Amino acid sequence: MQKQQHIIEESLKAVMEDESFLPNLQAQTREQAYKSLCALLSTPNHIHKSFLRVTLENGTIVRIPAFRVQHSDTLGPYKGGIRFHETVNEEEVSNLAKLMTLKNALHELPFGGGKGGVIINPKEYSIKELNLICKKYVQYFNDILGPDKDIPAPDVGTGEREMDWMMGEYKNTHPGKIYRNSFTGKSIVNGGSLGRREATGKGVYFTFRYMMHNYLNENEKALKETDNIFAKTALEHADRKLTMAVQGFGNLGSVAALEAYQCSHLQNKIVAVSDHNVMLYHEDGLDIPGLVKFTKEHDGDLPTNQEELDEYDIKAEVKERDDLLALDVDVLLLAALEDQIHKENMEDIQAKLIIEGANGPITEEADRYLADKGVLIVPDILANAGGVIVSYYEWVQGRDTQFMTEEEVYKRLFDKMRGTMDTILPQFFGDPFPLRQNCYIHSVMKLSTIMYRQGKLY
Length: 458
Ligand code: NAD
Fold this sequence. Notes:
The chain is α/β, with parallel strands linked by helices. Helix content is 46%, strand content 15%.
């Protein structure tokens, strides 16, 4: 199934039915414009596929399927991560590329949307073999990548090490050309930006905090006067200690959980966290700094038994991993994988506030079901853009060879995210659409206007 297509079409319809939008369009042209926008947004500009021919350390030659999908360059060069995973496929990469187009449009970044994928389990390859796979990826997609064409970043299964290798290969294959901003998410020493690693987790929590603290405080009177169901949900959770459960304790989940733990604006109590092995629970709140320390010293994994918990003096019960989603908490922060809340478990969800750190953690059906019940979902497109926003700063810094301090990076990140929310939230609390739909409407409006101005809707 083509993810997002339904909601994109609904958002486009809402935009096109609003006669104040592109008022110069006559009724017939408006209908045509709607059709061409649906076609433009539902299909990527290019799907590049190849088999990377790699000689393994034992002498075997393998051919590894690899993709780069370039969805739209309406707003600038294609931008999006490269995923190394054994289940990655063309459809998934295309959907993620489309989401990048919409996310970059929502946050007013000068980038289009792209995504890459390599079908491997990186844990099954040696460092030397992974290095070779990264180099081959750049060689095979050499002509389509570059600072003004398509700028990859890390995604699941890749990180700064892979981006450093890829940028190195890009530099080798483009002698004399600008190369520092050909890839983002690199190590600091190799031209990466301070704050890039923490940016997504910090941005996820900032989005939630801004909405539930700053925006609510400043607009409380107006929100009390509306009959918007999501405003009601938000107000019911204002000014009280919020219990929170965090699914996924990797890069994103652990940073966001620490931000929530340390937040002085909202009083949070993180009662549960989970990873691919376990759920840890404590009704009085978990020691998040202690768990972060443990994971740093144990290859990213949470403690799985009482002995390990005792060793770090952490008070918690070890429970079934997937029971976390059904806990009676105020807030669920989803920071693991896609499609975690779906038809089979959507009725078990008790939280009234959900933050999507991961991309697409709620299926379309579950999303509608929860929204109808007044659950306020802060969608991925709004909440988890911190990574691509700081990637943009890395790209600018690489181009200018002038580097920002960590403080400057965070200030600019939060200013940017605040700007997006100040545009979206008044609209959201003023009409009946869920927040995801509002974000999509804003993105397609931006893309439609630019395509119209560039003469692409005829
Ligand atoms: P990560 O690999 O560092 O962490 C993933 C975490 O999820 C790990 O703790 C893992 O154990 C856990 N996990 C896996 N399966 C689970 C399950 N069934 N139940 C509970 N936990 C499970 O990845 P990350 O960088 O933190 O990214 C998490 C998600 O956020 C991904 O979907 C990614 O695409 C998305 N995302 C990340 C960034 C970023 O900058 N890191 C940016 C945008 C979106």
